Amino acid sequence: MEAKSFALIPEAASTIANQVDALYAFMILVSAFFSLLIAFLIIFFAVKYRYRRGVKPTFKPANEHSIGGLVLEIVWTAIPLGLSMIMFVWGVSIYFTESRPPANSMEIYVTGKQWMWKIQHMEGASEINELHIPVNRNIKLTMTSEDVLHDFYVPAFRTKADVLPGRYTTEWFNATKEGSYHIFCAEYCGTKHSTMVGTVYVLSEPAYATWLAAGSGQRSMAEQGQALFNQLGCGNCHASVINNGTGRGPNLNGVFGSVVDLKDAGSVRADESYIRESVMYPQAKIVAGFDDIMPTFKGLLSDEGMLKLIEYVKSLGLKNGAPNNGLPGSGMTNATVPAPGRPVGSSGANAPVVTR
Amino acid sequence: MASHTSAIEGHGQHEGSHDPNLKHHFENAEQQKETATLGMWAFLLTELMFFGGLFLAYFVYRHWYPVAFIDASNKTDVLVGAINTTVLICSSLTMALGVHYASKGNRKLLVMFLVLTLLLGGIFLGVKGYEYHDKWVHHEIPGEHFECHGCRDAGHASLFFSLYFGMTGLHASHMIIGFGVLLVLIWQAWKGKFTAKWYTPIEIFGLYWHFVDIVWIFLFPLLYLIDRVGKPLL
Amino acid sequence: MQAHTEEHHIVPKRVYALVFVTLIILTWVTAWVSTVDLGRMNIYVALSIAVFKATLVVLFFMHVKYGSRLTKLIVCSGILWLMLLLFITMSDIWTRGWIGVPGR
Amino acid sequence: MITATAPVIEEKNYLNAEHGLKSWLLTQDHKRIALLYLMAVSVFFIVGGFFAVLIRLELATPAGDLLDSNTYNKVFTMHGVVMIFFFLIPSIPAILGNFLLPLMIGAKDLAFPRINLLSWYVYMLAGILGTTVLLTGGVDTGWTFYTPLSSTYSNGYVVLTAMAAFVAGFSSILTGLNFIVTVHRMRAPGLTWFRLPLFVWAHYATSVVMILGTPVIAVTLFLLMLERGLHIGFFDPAYGGDPVLFQHLFWFYSHPAVYIMILPSMGVISEVVSTFCTKKPFGYTFIAFSSVAIAVFGFLVWGHHLFVSSQSAYAGMVFSILTYIVAIPSAIKVFNWSATMYKGQVRLETPMLYALGFIGLFTIGGLTGLFLAAMGLNVHVTDTYFVVAHFHYVMVGGGVMGYLAGLHHWWPKMFGRMYSRTWSMVAAGLVFIGFNLTFFPQFLLGYMGMPRRYHVYPPEFQVLNVLSSAGASILALGFLIPGIYLTWSLKYGAKAPANPWGGVTLEWQTSSPPPTSNFDVTPVITNEVYDYTNQEVPHIG
Ligand code: HEA
Ligand code: HEA
Ligand code: CUA
Ligand SMILES: [Cu+2]
Asked: How far apart are CA D368 and CA B120, in angstroms?
C-alpha cells in the first residue's frame, strides 16, 4: 500500500463513493450552519444581555403565547423538518442503490471466520484476506460466516455489510480506480477483531486476466460443487442432470431463483438461503408433491462446501429447460430473481413468500 | 390528564393522621390507596413488556418454522394444559371474590378465598412440575441431548421448546412469587389486619394475580394448541 | 374527579359468575377448535379467543371497567407498546428479501 | 469568598437530623437516598473513566503495545457497560431527580420511600456483580452483547455481566415507577401539570421510557443468560435462531435508553438557563411536550442501529424517517433555550457555563446523529469512530455536561455549602476544551474509515488518534478538579443561602439543606410557573 499523506476523506474508489461524499458534504453544510448559528446566538445573547446590577430589562420579551412566539416555534420546527426530509430521501436513494446489485454483476463468495476472510472466485481461485478484482466491473459478494457476526468493509468503496452465520448477505460495488485498499472487519467479532483486515487489489482488465490465469488449473466453483453433489449422493434422489428429474427428489434444474410451491402452505423464492436451508434443514419446507424423506446434511458440509453446492445448483439453468451450460460460473442467474414483493411462478401472485 | 388537586383542596391538616396505616408523607388514606394502585398498574405495564420480548421471539420463529412448531406443539398434552388453564381461571375467580369480601370487611370469607387461591395456584404449579418432568424424560429439553421424536423439522423444534420453557418458566416463577406473597397476606388477613376501609394490599395483589392469569390465557393457545387437526382432544 | 366515587364500586357477584363461566367455556372451546382444520386461520382464531378472555379479566376481575381514566390509559398504553414491539419487528421479518437479494 | 468554617449552631436539616451509619443505610428519606446514589455513581464514573484512560493510552500508537488484544476488548466493554448502566443512566434521575422531584412538587417524599431505598440496594447488588466481573477477569462482548459472540464464543464472564445489567435494570424500573406515581399523586395543592417545572416534565418522560423499555432489555439479557448458561438456544443460528432478533430486542430498549440519558440533562438545562436568565423559559409548553414526544417517538426508531445488519431495507427506510422525526423535538428544545436568553439577564455562573457547553455540544452530537440516520451514509460510517464520536458528543457533551450543570446548580441546596467559583469555572473551561479535542478528531477518523473496537490500526490514522489522546488527558484533568473542590466544599465551603441563584421553583423556597420533611408547611401554589416578577437577582462572588 502506498503511503498516504494526511487526508480527511478516504480515497473515493467506487461508483457509490462520490454519491456518499456528496451527501456527506451536504450534511456538513447544514450542520455547520446550525452549529454556528446556535453558537453565535448563545454567545451574542450572553454578552448583549449580560446581567448588570440594578438594570432591569426594559421591555417585556416576546413569549410563546404571542403571535410572534408561535410563528417562531412553527418556523424552527418546519425548517429542520424540511431539511431532514431531504436527508432522508437522499440517504434512502443511495442505500437502495447499494442494496440492488446490477444484474450483470460478477459473483464472488466470501466466508468470514474468526479472524480471517476467505474469498472464492467462481473460476475456482480462492484467496485469504486478499481480494483481486477487475476495475470498472460490477462485483457482487455473497457472504456468510462460520462462527460469529463479521462485517466486510472497504472504506474506499464506502460500503459494508454484516456477515452472519447460517445465512447469506450481499454487498456490491464497482471499483473505479486501480490500486489497493483496506478491507476491515467492522463488526466486533472477538479477540482479534482488529486484525481481521485485508486488502482489495483493483486491477486493470488485462492484469486481472493474468492474475486469474496464474491461479488456473483450479476447477471452477460449480465444478467443485458438482463433485460434492456426487460425493454426497445427492444425485441418488435428485438425478436432475442425468435424467432430468425422475428421482425421488425434485428436479433441481432451474430451481434457483424460481418460486417453489410448498406442501403445507405458501411458497418460497429459491435463493441462496433457501438452498442452504433445504440441505441443512430439509424438513423445514417441503416441496409440494414430495415426501419429507431428504436427510439433513448438517454437520457433513462446511460453509464453503455449501457455497460450492449452491453455485452448482445455480448453474443448473432454467426449469424444465436444458441446462444452460453455465459451467463454469453462471453469473447471470440473478436476472431471474423476480421483482420485490411480486413473486413470479405457478403459485400466483397472492401466495405469501417466506424469506429470511 | 385531569389533575387530582381537587382531592386535596382544603385539606391543610392531616385528617386521617390517626389511621395507623397512613404513611407520614400522604395527606389522607384516599391518596395513599390511589398511589398504591397506580404503582401496581405501572408495575404491570413493566411486566407486560417483560413477557413481550418472549412473545416477539415466539411470533418470529413460528412465522419461519410453522412445521416445526406444529409438530413440537403437538407433543404437549392439551388435556393437561386445558385442565391447568381451568384451575388458573378458578384461582382468578377465588381471588376476585377474596377482594370482594375484603371490601365488605368479611374476614372469614376473605381468608377462605385467599386459601382457595393458594391451593389452586399450588395445583397449577404441581401440574406444571409434572409436565416438566415429562419433558425431561422425553429429552425434550433444548441442549445437547435434545430429541424430538417424530417431528418433521426436528432441527428447528428446539426453538419451540426453548420458548416453551422460557415462557412457562417465567410464568411459573411469577406464580411462585405470588404464592409467597399470598402466604403473607393470608397470615395478615387472619390476624385481622385488613378492614373494609383499608385492604389495599389485597386489592393490588389481586391485580398481580389476574395479570399472571392473563399471561397464561395467551400461553395456553400459543404453546398447546397449534394445529391439532385430526387429533383427539381427550 | 368522578372516578373517586366509582373506584369503590363493588362488582356484583353475579357478574363474577358470568365472567367465570364464559372463561371456562372459552377455554374448552379454544382447545376444541384447534382440532378443526382451519389452515392458516388457526392462530387467528386462537388469539382472538385469548384476547376476548383477557379483556374479560381486565375489565371485570381487575375492575378496569369501573376504574379511573388514568387506569384505562395505562392499560391501553401497555397494549399499544406491546404492539409496537411486535409489529415493528415483524415488519422487518415480513419484508426481508423483498429486494430479492439475500440479506437486504 | 470562601470564609472560615460555618457557624456552630446549625438548623436541623436532613443531613444532621440523625447520625450513624444505620441512619443512612436504612433511611427512607429521598434526599439521603440521593446522596447514597451520588457516592455509588461517582465511584463508577471513576472506574469507567479509568478504563477510558486505558483506551486512549493504548490508541496513542497504532500497534497494540500497551494491552494485549484480549485485555483491550475487555477494557472497552467494561468502559461501555460501567458508563452506561452504572453511571449515566442512574446519574441524573437517581441523584438529582431523587433529591429534587419531591421538593419541586412540594411533596414530603416520593410515593414509595421504601421502594426507593430498595432501588439503591438493587443497584448496589448489580454493582457488586459488575465489580466481581471486573476483578475476576472481565468480559469482552462489547456493551451491546451481540449474539452469537456473547452466547457461544466469548471467553469472558458473560452471564455474570448480563446479570449485573439485568439487576441494574430493575433498579432503574423501580426509580421510574416511583417518579411516575409521585408526579401523578403527590403534587402540592394548586400545582397543576402546566405549573410543573420542566425538570419534572423531563423526569416524567424519562420514567415512561424506564418502565416501558427496561423490561425488554431485562428479558433479552435473561434469554442470553439461558442461552449461554444452559444452552437453551433462542438466537443461535445453529438451531435456525436469528441473531438479528437479539439486536431488535436489545435496541428496543437501548435506543430509548439514550433518551433516558439525555432527557434528564435537558431538564437540568431548562432549569439552569431559566434561572440564570431570570426569565421564564421561552416556549414552556413546547419544551414540556417535546420531552414527552421524545420519550414516545423514541420507541419507534431502534432499527437505525441495524442498517447493515441484514435487516430488511424497507424496515430500515421506516426506521430512518422516524429517526428524523424524533430529532425535531430536540431541535425545538435547542432553539427555545437560545431564545430564552434573548433579552434575559444573563449571568455566566458555573452552572450556566456548563449549560451553554451542553447546548453547543449536544447540537453537534445531535446533528451528527442525523448523518447516521441517513441510510446511505450510515453504511459507510456505522461501526467506525464516527459513531463513537457521535455518542460521546451526546453522552459526554450532553449527558455529562448536563449532570455537571445540575450538580453545580443544586450543590448548595444539597449540602448547604458553596464551592469555589474560580476553580469551578476553570474546570468548566478545561472540560469544554479537552472534550472537543478528544472527540472531534474521532469524527474525522470515522469518515476516514477507522473501525471502532480496534486495538491496532493502520498508521495513517495515528495523527488524529494522538490528538484525541491528548485531549483526553485535558478532559481527565477537567473532571478531576471538580472532584477536588466539591469534596473540599463539604467541609470548608461558605454556607449557602436558601436561594443562592435566585431560582423560583419550589426547592429554593425551603432552607439549604432542606429539613427532613422538606417543607415546614405544605406549600400551596397560586402563581404561574417561573414567575420572576418578585424575584431579586442575588449577588454572587
Ligand atoms: C444520550 C445519548 C444519545 C442521544 C441523545 C442520541 C441522539 C440521536 N442519535 Fe444516537 N447514539 C447513541 C446515543 C445517543 N444518540 C449511542 C450510545 C449510539 C451507539 C451505540 C453503539 O452502537 O454502541 C448511537 C448511535 C446512533 C445511530 C446508529 C449508528 C450506527 O451504529 O450505525 C444513529 C442512526 O441513526 C443515531 C442517531 C441519532 C439521532 C438522529 C439522534 C437525535 O435524537 C438527535 C437530535 C438532536 C439534534 C438534531 C440537534 C439539535 C438540533 C438543531 C440544532 C436544529 C437543526 C436540526 C435539524 C436540521 C433536524 N445514533
Ligand atoms: C456515559 C457514557 C460514556 C462516557 C462518560 C464516556 C467517556 C469517555 N470515553 Fe467512552 N464509550 C462509551 C460511553 C462513555 N464514554 C460507550 C458506551 C462506548 C462503547 C463501548 C463498546 O464499544 O462496547 C465507549 C467507547 C469509547 C471508545 C472507543 C473504544 C473502541 O471502540 O475501541 C473510546 C476511545 O477513545 C472512548 C473514550 C472515552 C473517553 C476519553 C472518555 C472521557 O470522557 C472519560 C473521562 C473521565 C475520566 C478520565 C475520569 C477521570 C475523573 C476523575 C479521575 C475524577 C476524580 C474524581 C474524584 C476524586 C471524586 N470511549
Ligand atoms: Cu470479524 Cu470483526
Ligand atoms: Cu439509537
From this structure: 57
Does ligand 3 lie within 6 Å of residue A189's CB atom? yes
Complex ipTM value: 0.90
- C-alpha distance from B62 to closest chain D C-alpha (Å): 11
- How far C92 CA sits from the closest chain D CA (Å)? 5
CA distance A266 to B14: 69
Contact criterion met (CB below 8 Å) for D439 and D396? yes
Beta bridge pairs of residue A162: A151
> What is the set of domains in chain B, with CATH numbers?
37-225 (1.20.120.80)
Q: Determine the average pLDDT of the residues in D377-383.
A: 96
Mean pLDDT of chain A: 81
Range of the domain at A270: 221-341
Nearest chain B residue (CA) to A278: B153
Q: Which residues of B touch C93 (CB under 8 A)?
A: 60, 63-64
Amino acid, single-letter form, for residue A316 = L
Q: Is A309 in the pocket of ligand 3 (CB under 6 A)?
A: no
Model confidence pLDDT, tens digit, residues B116-153: 999 999 999 999 999 999 888 887 888 777 877 777 78
Query: D519 in a domain, yes or no?
Result: no
The C-alpha angle with vertex D267 and arms to D261 and D268, in degrees rounded to 5, equals 95
The answer to the question of residue D492 being in a domain is yes
Q: Report whether A132 contacts A139 (CB < 8 A).
A: no
**Nearest-atom index, ligand 2, CA of D435:** 43
CA atoms within 13 A of residue D176's CA, in its CB half-sphere: 29
Return the ligand number nearest the Cα of A190.
3
CA–centroid distance, D511 to ligand 1, in Å, is: 40
For ligand 3, whether the C-beta of A110 sits within 6 Å is no
Query: How many structural domains does chain D have?
Result: 1
- Cα A187 off chain centre by: 14
List the single best residue of A23, A162, A272 to mutate versus D (max D Cβ within 10 A). A162
Residues recorded for chain C: 104
A-chain residues within 8 Å CB-CB of B153?
281, 283-284
E runs forming strands in D299-420: none
Hey, which residues does A163 pair with through a beta bridge?
A: A150
Residues of C whose CB is below 8 A from B43: none
- Please report the pLDDT score of residue A205 as a whole number: 93
CB of C10 less than 8 A from some CB of A: no
From the centroid of its chain, how far is CA A189? 18
Please report the pLDDT score of residue A287 as a whole number: 85
User: For A87-102, what is the HEC assignment?
Assistant: HHHHHHHHHHHHHCCC
Question: Using CA atoms, how far apart are residues A86 and A94, in angstroms rounded to an integer?
Answer: 12
The reported pTM is 0.91
A150 close to ligand 3 (CB < 6 Angstrom):
yes
Give dist(CA B93, CA B100) in Å, integer.
10
Confidence of residue A280 (pLDDT cuts 50, 70, 90): confident
* DSSP three-state, residue A152: strand
- Can you read off the three cell numbers belonging to residue A127? 484467496
Q: Using CA atoms, how far apart are residues B206 and D341, in angstroms rounded to an integer?
A: 52
Whether the pLDDT of residue A68 is over 90: the answer is no
Under 8 Å between Cβ of D223 and C56: no
Q: Is the pLDDT of residue A244 over 80?
A: no
CATH number for position A112: 2.60.40.420
What band does A232 get if pLDDT is binned at 50, 70 and 90? confident
Which residues does a 6 A CB cutoff place in the pocket of ligand 1?
A: A 30, 34, 38, 80, 83-84; D 144, 258, 261-262, 304-305, 323, 326-327, 330-331, 334, 363, 366-367, 369-370, 372-373, 378, 382, 387, 390-391, 394-395, 398-399
- Cα torsion angle, A49, A50, A52, A54, sign: positive
- Domain with residue D305: its CATH number is 1.20.210.10
For A352, name the nearest residue in chain B, comparing CA atoms only: B63
